[in-house]
């Protein structure tokens, strides 16, 4: 069963091998309830693979993943979602011709395993409809509820990806480079949206922009060549010369 008081996430000896390459190697990671953790590291460090192992898109070669104290290493991804794990997906996975609110309702109904009637208009799910509007308001997009997704700007689409996760009431959220490709203004907006998440939600964020990582996260984990290279507060990480070196390719220790 899910344990109360357990860390939101624990990885032990987690490894993923692709052919001869350990994309993730012997990773031990513990993230407490409500913590905001940034995962940083150079391209190819294994950050996205680590998220895929946590969410179940990729199966582990060895090691263990637990969320809320429950071993989920061999659990399919949809069951992990039912335990409260949410991650962003590219907007292309949703329905471009449906409106934003319709997409949110489809996401919510899908996860709840509610009896879903093809013939019942989506607006008939009144509680969910209100909740969807609340979430849209929390990202400043309530007035766009009835717009079709295909009419949104890139920045707005990234914000909708966030709302599609929040509508499932997750307790642990994985965000893979939520500011990638955004303008500075859109990136600032995205950062403030993430900072306003319910403090009960544990957040892991992969972020290439250090300013964003430092603003959002309490603790930073640096991955390098698939391994946890160093972990610490913003101050510890930004003062660590070895962290600078891995970004410039001088440090080769793992
Ligand atoms: N499906 C895959 N098959 C083979 N190699 C992969 C696969 N996914 C990722 N890799 C490799 O694993 C390493 C880590 O990739 P990734 O997790 O995407 O890194 P990051 O997100 O830190 O940039 C890279 O060398 C990448 O080429
Ligand atoms: Mg990546």
Give the arrangement of secondary structure elements.
Blueprint: E1 9-18, E2 21-31, E3 36-40, H1 47-55, E4 62-67, E5 70-71, H2 77-82, E6 85-87, H3 100-112, H4 126-138, H5 154-166, E7 172-176, H6 184-195, E8 202-206, H7 210-216, E9 219-224, E10 227-232, H8 234-238, H9 241-247
Parallel strand pairs: 3-8, 3-9, 6-7, 7-8
Antiparallel strand pairs: 1-2, 1-4, 4-5, 9-10
Helix pairs in contact: 3-4, 3-5, 5-6
The protein binds adenosine-5'-diphosphate and magnesium ion.
Adenosine-5'-diphosphate binds at residues 18, 21, 23, 41, 43-49.
Structural features, described:
With 254 residues, this protein is α/β, with parallel strands linked by helices. The chain has 2 domains: 168 residues, 3-Layer(aba) Sandwich (Rossmann fold), CATH 3.40.50; 81 residues, no CATH class. The strands form 2 sheets. It has a 6-stranded mixed β-sheet with strand order 6-7-8-3-9-10, sandwiched between helices. It has a 4-stranded antiparallel β-sheet with strand order 2-1-4-5, with helices on one face. The longest helix has 13 residues. The mean pLDDT is 89. It binds adenosine-5'-diphosphate (ADP) and magnesium ion (MG). Adenosine-5'-diphosphate binds next to strand 2 and helix 1. Magnesium ion (MG) binds next to helix 1.
């Amino acid at each position: 069963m899910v344990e109360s008081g357990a860390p939101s996430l624990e990885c032990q000896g987690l490894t993923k091998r692709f052919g001869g390459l350990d994309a993730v190697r012997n990773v031990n990671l513990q993230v407490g309830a409500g913590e905001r953790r940034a995962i940083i590291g150079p391209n190819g460090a294994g950050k996205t693979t680590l998220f895929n192992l946590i969410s179940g898109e990729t199966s582990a070669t060895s090691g263990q993943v637990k969320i809320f104290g429950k071993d989920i290493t061999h659990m399919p991804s949809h069951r992990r979602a039912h335990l409260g794990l949410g991650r962003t997906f590219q907007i292309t996975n949703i329905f471009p011709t449906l409106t934003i609110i319709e997409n949110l309702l489809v996401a919510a109904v899908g996860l709840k395993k509610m009896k879903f009637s093809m013939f019942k208009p989506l607006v008939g799910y009144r509680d969910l409809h209100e909740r969807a509007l609340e979430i849209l308001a929390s990202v400043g997009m309530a007035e766009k509820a009835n717009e079709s997704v295909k009419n949104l700007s890139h920045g707005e689409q990234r914000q909708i990806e966030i709302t599609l996760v929040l509508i499932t009431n997750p307790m642990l959220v994985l965000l893979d480079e939520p500011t990638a490709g955004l303008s500075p203004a859109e990136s600032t907006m995205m950062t403030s949206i993430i900072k306003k998440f319910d403090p009960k939600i544990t957040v892991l964020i992969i972020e290439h922009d250090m300013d964003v990582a430092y603003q959002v996260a309490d603790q930073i984990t640096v991955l390098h060549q698939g391994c946890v290279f160093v972990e610490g507060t913003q101050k510890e990480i930004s003062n660590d010369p070895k962290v600078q070196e891995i970004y410039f390719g001088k440090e080769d220790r793992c």
